[in-house]
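hiii so my PI (J.) wants the whole complex modelled not just the main chain, which honestly fair. so below is everything: two entries, each one labled with what it is. i double checked the lines twice but i was tired so who knows lol
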Amino acid sequence: MMYKQSNNLFLPLMNTQDFENKTEVERSEIPTLREPMTEAQRPETEVRHLDTSVSLVVEDTSVEQSLISHPISHISGCTCEGHTTNHARMQTAAAVAGLTATALLASCKKEEDLLFEVNTVGLYSSAAEKDKMKSNEQYVSILYTNLFQQAISSSDVFSIANCFDSIGDQELAREVLISNFFNDDGVQLPTIEEMNADIETFIVDTFKRFFVRIPTEAEKTWVKNFITSNPYMTPELVYFSFALTNEYLFY
Amino acid sequence: MKRREFIKKVAATSAGLAIAPYILPSGRLFAPSGYRSANHVIMVMFAGGVRHQESVGMRYLDDSQIGDPYPGNIMYNMLNGAAPTMKIAYGTGEGGELPIPAILSQTLQSQGTLFSEMQALSAGHYGGLNSILQGGLVSAQGLRQRPVNPTIFEYLRRHGGYAASDVWFVGNGIGGSTPLLNYSGNPDYGIQYGANFFAPGTTFGEEGFNYLADAKVYHPENELAPMYAMKAFLDNTFAQFGQSQQSLGNTEEEKQNIKLFMDAMYEKVANGTLALPPVTDNGDLYTMAFACEVMKWFKPAFMAVNLSAVDTCHSNFTGYVAAMHRADHAVGHLWNYLQTEIADIANDTTIICLPECGRNDEPNAITDINGWNAYDHSDENALRIWSMMVGPGVPSNLTLGSEGNPVGLVSDAMLAVAEILGVKTDVMNAGYLAPGTLSLFDHF
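here's the output for the full assembly
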């Protein structure tokens, strides 16, 4: 199955009509991205893996040091200085190589757990599920991804968050930022022709892109009527209004 | 419907529509009048912890550096007094040997009233700024927390009916929780009565230029109006789930005006035509340039400006006196700009300057490149501040109080703003003022 990036989640690339034709059970089987695990949710095995690595390093060092500190001549019986040193070096090298190989074999264990992976989490069934407000950083990251279809760099997020802090009216700050983004050639927008060719699909896709949910019939009807009755309404202005809504501030 | 009934209903509806825009958020039909000595007030929060001895005390090095008995006034736009003649390190050029020439031909002290010693309520910056803007300070006020009690911005907007763009806060930066000061967390006031805010160093600095300066221009009626209409519909549908986000309350017209201002500022910065003071070599002077621009563009009823560069005194006394000299230069530039470039409101504007806190009597262990001691702010001496007020109805050439004989509290300044702009009674009735707070006018 193909995936497209939306709202930092990977949603299945599926025709809206197909989706609506499916039963509830079929819809629930559509795979989507699982949210990143929190610290508390991380599996214990990952921590154990890190602990093992640390203890191996410590063990290697101590064994190596103990071998070097014991004269090899006690083992071979020869007491001449050169022989003793060569024997000692060879034995030490062999011991170190053996231990290193053992350590490498032990540490080359297949990683069992992943921090991020695709999992089955559906779209929001309703806007009512959104009760947490996005931070400025989250808002900026998600907005950028929604508009440019690619991730924003962390330094850009930091700088834009600073810009938000420097303006008292946050709504105004969002408007100015969005209108700056729309001056960038990289914004991924449907054309007006594409919007008008299948306006219902455009509306559903826009709701999914920005609100991560399917519009209600009332919403679909109102937005459709509004777009068709306003000749100046473009995909850009529709995206602009969605990006400014209160719902877009929550998740 | 009968013709008579129809006419009655139309008349009633028309009357309602005509009156509705004038009903204030507080429910009043008209704003209260109050003292109203001026229609515009500027408050300069000066300037990051100023020691009484070097500012109003005019003792330069005499009271701070052992073996340097050189007094003098380094704030000669604001205060009467001769400048130091020895060991000058606060000016421009190598070693700061060249003092910045005075901008004002007549000091603010001679034009208005100096409260030569007042009592601060906090020895810290954020606490001090809160005490100025709230007219008091609660012990529960924490850092990284919005003011616990309402600020003067909110009193003015809620009780005075001022629009959002009538009330401004120009900050020195985005650090130290400064952006949180434009409205409180008080449930009866809050964001819908907050002030517009810019931290010019960021908004119009490199970061602002990179991400905000290239805004696309939309047609306000053909494009923005339907865009806002769709947003309103979507917000209404989301509001049924109990989640909403209140805003500062700038109208669409105000927002457009602020966007135009931002565009103009980016252009001015790029063209080098900003209202900069004659010397602009630190952040406070840059901040003051934008305060001048805000004053000229919006002609707000109230604007607070925060300067902070003198706080370098924690480790650099030389930098401290240089920053204090520049803060005076900034205030002189603001007052001069008002008289020359915004002349239509010059005689209708009052300026109040006061530090949020002072500095310690004893130095810390740090010395700077001149071997001068540095000072923190935590002791009784750090609660010794002063204030200055100039404007219509303010007695000129008057000094109240003296060293060791303080007159007034830091919170008096906020109540004076409330008095000038007509909300003094509402502020007092709200019950959040520090005990003993009077308006500065009450001391005359």
